[in-house]
Amino acid sequence: MEASELRLGNLVTIDNEKHWAKLKNMPLKITAINQLQDLEGSKNGVGLEHLVQLPNTYYETYSQYLHFIKPIELNEAWLKSFGFKPLSKDFQKNAVIIHTRKRGFVVNTKIPVLKYVHQLQNLYYALRGEELSLNAL
Q: Could you tell me which of 1, 21, 83, 102 has the fewest CB atoms within 10 Å of its CB?
């Protein structure tokens, strides 16, 4: 993934077996996009936090190099979690209709295929000027 694809609030996962094996395939929210330093110099990184946080409970936050950040595959369950309602084979929320296709999800033929959750979040924000809120997982 490239830093230019990401925005604060996007949902991604970590694939770093050495340091964060327990977080593999766990959805995390981006809280920062920054430069991290290591022995080889400066690299792009992100700050992350857990999606679901109970009040008065400690949750660890994470910093991770961008090359360990992986997109979350977009599927019907994610669309429903964001409040999109089934409409035949498609999904709708606030006049935004997502069409189901074999190769992924599309808004119309002029927009690239949506394959990942963060792409849907970015597109919805661009079209509606508001964040997608997660109802339930």
A: 102
Rounded-to-integer distance, Cα 137 and Cα 128, Å: 22
Choices 3.30.1330, 1.20.120, 2.60.40, 2.30.30: CATH for 3-71: 2.30.30
Q: Walk along the chain (137 residues) and give the pLDDT tens digit of each residue.
A: 778 889 999 999 999 888 888 889 999 999 999 876 665 666 788 999 998 888 888 888 898 889 899 999 999 999 999 999 998 889 988 878 898 888 888 886 566 788 999 998 998 888 888 888 888 66
Question: Which segments of the chain belong to CATH 2.30.30?
Answer: 3-71
